Every structure is written in structure tokens, then in C-alpha cells.
């Protein structure tokens, strides 16, 4: 999953143009799913808005062979909202008894993230989160 998300981030920079800034979170999710589907076709599947045991909904859960990956998709709304996304994803991971999750953030600020994705691992409440931010 880390490699797939990194490849998606690079692919995103190849096709995205600043005139597309009117994207909404739903369209970002569709773009990611469209990229993901050929890779898991035949050996896995994905769930959109999968429900956890406490009734909360995750953005994307990918079942691939014998593994399950939880991916949270967000739009950039600032540092506080980004920290809340870590908290939200950590809660999902806890409810699914997972230690690792993935946060894919679409950042449409004109002064940040130009030309290449920001990718890094973050520890939050004992959970490892691959934090990927793409812009334009």
C-alpha cells in the first residue's frame, strides 16, 4: 500500500492542473479509486464508507490478498484539521485492531506542495500513519 500511494501521488502530479481546483472530496476519492482498482482487480476489493464497530465510517478500506488497509482521504483545511485527521484515522485503526493506516490529503493552496508530493510516516497514539499530501 505505501508504494501504491506513492505512485498515485506521482501520477496525480502528472495529470493534475491548477484549473481543476474546484475538486471536492468526493471527486478526489473517485480519482483515487479509479487509480487503485486495476491494481487490486482479481486479488482484492475495496469498501467505500466502511463502517467500524462503533458506527463510524472510514473513507476507503482495501482488502488485498490476506491484508486489510485503511485509507482516510481529506482535503486540506489547516494544521488543526490535519491533526484531527490523525485522531480520526487512529480511532479507525484501533476499532479494526490495526497498527498502520494511510492518510491521503489533497491540498489546493497555491503556495504549498507545488510539483511533488509530501510523503512521510507519522506516529500518533501508538499508530503508524503514512501521511501523503498532494497539491497542484
Task: Give a description of the structure.
With 136 residues, this protein is α/β, with parallel strands linked by helices. It has a single domain (2-134), classed as Trna Endonuclease, Chain: A, domain 1. It contains three helices and six strands. It has a six-stranded mixed sheet with strand order 1-2-3-4-6-5. The chain is globular and about 40 Å long. The two termini are 22 Å apart. The mean pLDDT is 83.
SSE topology sketch:
Elements: H1 2-15, H2 25-40, E1 44-48, E2 60-64, E3 67-75, H3 79-95, E4 100-106, E5 118-124, E6 127-134
Parallel strand pairs: 3-4, 4-6
Antiparallel strand pairs: 1-2, 2-3, 5-6
| Biggest sheet, spatial arrangement of strands | 1-2-3-4-6-5
**What share of the residues lie within helices?**
25-40%
Rg over C-alpha atoms, rounded to the nearest angstrom: 14 Å
| Main sheet attributes: strand count, strand direction, barrel closure | 6 strands, mixed
Number of strands: 6
Structural class: alpha/beta
Q: What's the CATH class label? A: Alpha Beta
Number of helices: 3
Question: CATH architecture, please?
Answer: 3-Layer(aba) Sandwich
What is the approximate shape? globular
Mean pLDDT rating: 83
Tell me the number of structural domains.
Answer: 1
Return residue spans where pLDDT drops below 50 for at least 5 consecutive residues: none
Amino acid at each position: 500500500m505505501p508504494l501504491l500511494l506513492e505512485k498515485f501521488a506521482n501520477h496525480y502530479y502528472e495529470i493534475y492542473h491548477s484549473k481543476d481546483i474546484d475538486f471536492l472530496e468526493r471527486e478526489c476519492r473517485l480519482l483515487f479509486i479509479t487509480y487503485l482498482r486495476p491494481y487490486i482487480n482479481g486479488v482484492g476489493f475495496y469498501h467505500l464508507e466502511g463502517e467500524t464497530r462503533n458506527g463510524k465510517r472510514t473513507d476507503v478500506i482495501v482488502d488485498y490478498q490476506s491484508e486489510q488497509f485503511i485509507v482516510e482521504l481529506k482535503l486540506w483545511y489547516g494544521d488543526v484539521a490535519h491533526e484531527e485527521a490523525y485522531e480520526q484515522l487512529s480511532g479507525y485503526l484501533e476499532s479494526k485492531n490495526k497498527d498502520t493506516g494511510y492518510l491521503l490529503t489533497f491540498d489546493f493552496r497555491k503556495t504549498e506542495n507545488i510539483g511533488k508530493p509530501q510523503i512521510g510516516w507519522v506516529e500518533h497514539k501508538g499508530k503508524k500513519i503514512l501521511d501523503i499530501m498532494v497539491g497542484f
